[in-house]
Amino acid sequence: MSTASVSVAPSKAATVSDRVSLLTIMRLTMPKLGVSYLFTLLLSVFNRVMINELAIAAGLIGGLYFLYRSMNIFQVWAGRYADRRVILGLRRTPMMFLGVMLAALALVPLPHVAVYYSETRSVLGIVAMAACLALFGLGFAMNGDAHNTLIAEQTEGKRNRPAVVATVWLFQIVFIVISGIVSSIVLQIADTQAGAPPGCTTAECAAIRSAVAVRMMPYFFLMGPVLALIGFLPVLGVEARVSETELARAAQKPQLNVREAYARIFTNPQARVFFFFIVTSIFALFLQDNILEPFGADVFKLAPRQTAQFQPIMGMGTILAMLVMGIVASKYPIPKRTIADWGLMISAAAFALLTLSALTHALPLLFAGIAILGIGMGVFNVGALSMMMDMTVPGEAGSLMGAWGMAQALSNGFAQFVGGALRDLGIQLTGSFEAAYSVIFVVAIGMSLIAINLMARVNVELFRKLTREQLVATMEAA
Questions:
Q1: How many CB atoms sit inside 10 A of residue 316's CB?
Q2: Is a pLDDT exceeding 70 seen at residue 249?
Q3: Is the CB of residue 72 less than 8 Å from the CB of residue 108?
Q4: Core-most of 3, 116, 145, 416, by most CB within 10 Å?
């Protein structure tokens, strides 16, 4: 009897230690509150206002979004700095705070600047918008790399890593959905008070709704810093303080500069293939990102409060998919690459439905396509994000997560720019909203298929082997 009891106790201890606790998971999700609000406000609600209400060219808006995404080149720098330096005994938490607050504060003047540009069409207006979005992008990059690396470090060697990743991103989508619903409700109330109730379809009511949307934007953006701070506070204490031994070990690391860090990543063939998989897949999924609400306005003549519902609908599909896939992936050994491929295939089917909706003006197909696209993104997130965390090694997690985050962000920004440019160019060449948007959705389908082909070439174990060999070579050369 005593022998049996001795053998059971360690088993229970091991079972507990190989999983991240529920409390820690929930604390890791909360920083997504401010991030999700800023994302929804900028890329869903205000994006529609700038293009349709303020009549700013979609190509210009796409270029500005690409600028803010391009600031993610600093993710590798931020990750490398945090790998080797500490602030108040911590690596990731201070970088998260500085990043999210910079991002939130940078957007506060943006509505005023956008209105100024729409009225004057001056270069100064473009420069001011670019400055706001560049600072926003820098803060987003700092926060994103630190948060992703913190999650990777907290889940290293844990059996429930896929569930943790799914939960964190699930709650990001939940917060996006809530932000979209609340903004839609607030706009509807403001529309009604201004004399344009939901049932009114006259040109006068449409003009009132446009004016209300422009007037409400500064108040929405003022809430950004408040929600960012509220979301950050619960993560305090999750990260363990760096020990003296770890500090000494970090001080002995060779001070690789950012150029050398990039070179090392791109000379690793597995890292290179995975980098371009991220670039291609994110480009495919987000080519619609800044033109979906204008699509609803141009082709279906939907009001701002109606297109503000697109993100909640897509988000609900993402939530459902991530919830189901997170549970399934924790219980069954489904390869992460397979899950990512499923997500891309579902998304390609959704883009096909959006193409049909554009050509037939069938509103049910529009909403079905948006919902299914959300499901595809949710499935993709579970597989691809888990793969990103697997494609790291201890001691270089920040740098590698920075590289993957940089690939994701740059591709997202380029997709937004291309999507906006294709919309404007397609309308000019064909004179047809339907044709212009259909081309965008067909390009997304093609890029999804290319991404699936790239994923077939990724091998996590070979990547880790090659990366460790590079680290040894670097240490010997130092």
A1: 20
A2: no
A3: no
A4: 145
